[in-house]
Design brief:
- The protein is an alpha+beta fold and 269 residues long.
- The longest helix has 15 residues.
- It folds into two domains: 107 residues, Aminotransferase class 4, branched-chain amino acid transferase, N-terminal domain (D-amino Acid Aminotransferase, Chain A, domain 1), CATH 3.30.470; 151 residues, D-amino Acid Aminotransferase, Chain A, domain 2.
- The strands form two sheets. Strands 7, 8, 9, 10, 11, 12, 13, 14 and 15 form a nine-stranded mixed sheet that branches. Strands 2-1-6-5-3-4 form a six-stranded antiparallel sheet.
- Strand 8 and strand 9 form a beta hairpin.
């Protein structure tokens, strides 16, 4: 793994950094494909939007693009993780306004994408609603940490997470899509959950495949009625689902067609 802190090779972070002290920051997990960052504009749009919403001084765009391009060029395929924190500050929750953002960039090998359609389960850990943080990829990921700790079965790739009202929102590390006929549905992330960059790409690509994309609340019955279910994230792209375990039974979508068409289109882009 290669590490750069504020553009320089290094592995030491000041213990006073608010990212460590309070989770005060954001991150982007980006796929390196052919020595470049895939969907880079989408990642930067989400990062800069999140910095604006949190009042964090965002990195300058042009130098950041150059930094990301240099790091991505070191591997033909891989994963780049960019963390932006508010920076070093004093004790206490209230920012002083004088903090200078900390930027941490790491380059990792590419993990294998599942070769077969996924096995899913439901998580007991619920997502809390907070519209001010919804959609952002903040450093506060304890809900996903607790949810992912619920199972160790290697056959289960991902767990579905619900909100307090029993709406299905997302996976621990991915977004959910359901197709019924020509309608492609993904859960709203206006109260909790992360608005993934691959989710955005799929929503924008759906019309080109003859699909009508909709964001709305999703319940268990919608999974049972679906022709197809798939998950998505920036590293693995669209991933078809074979079975979703629920209370001793399994929901088994009949098709993987849309996910495979999207994967083909993504690989060609």
């Amino acid at each position: 793994m290669s590490v750069w802190i504020n553009g320089r090779v290094g592995k030491r972070i000041d213990h006073r950094d608010r990212g460590l002290q309070y989770g005060d920051g954001l991150f982007e997990t980006m796929r390196v494909h052919r020595r470049a960052v895939r969907l880079l504009d989408y990642h930067l749009h989400r990062l800069f939007d999140g910095c604006g919403r949190l009042g964090i001084a965002a990195p300058a765009e042009r130098p950041l693009r150059r930094e990301l391009a240099r790091a991505a060029s070191l591997r033909p395929e891989g994963v780049l993780k960019l963390i932006v924190t508010r920076g070093v500050g004093g004790r206490g929750y209230r920012p002083s306004g004088d903090e200078r953002a900390t930027r941490i960039l790491t380059l990792h090998p590419l993990p294998p994408t599942p070769a077969q359609p996924l096995q899913l389960r439901f998580c007991a850990t619920r997502l809390g609603a907070n519209g001010r943080l919804a959609g952002m990829k903040t450093l506060n990921r304890l809900e996903s940490v607790l949810a992912r700790a619920e199972w160790s079965d290697p056959r289960v790739f991902e767990g579905l997470m619900l909100d307090a009202e029993e709406n299905i929102v997302c996976g621990t590390m991915s977004n959910l899509f359901i197709r019924q006929g020509a309608c492609l549905v993904t859960p709203l992330v206006d109260r909790c959950g992360v608005a993934g960059v691959m989710r955005r790409w799929i929503l924008e690509t759906a019309a080109g495949l003859g699909l009508r994309a909709i964001e709305r609340r999703v319940r268990l019955r919608n999974l049972a009625d679906a022709d197809e279910v798939f998950m998505s994230n920036a590293v693995h792209g669209p991933m078809p689902v074979a079975a979703i375990k629920h209370k001793g039974t399994a929901i088994r979508p009949a098709s993987v067609e849309t996910a495979m068409m999207l994967r083909t289109r993504l690989d060609r882009s």
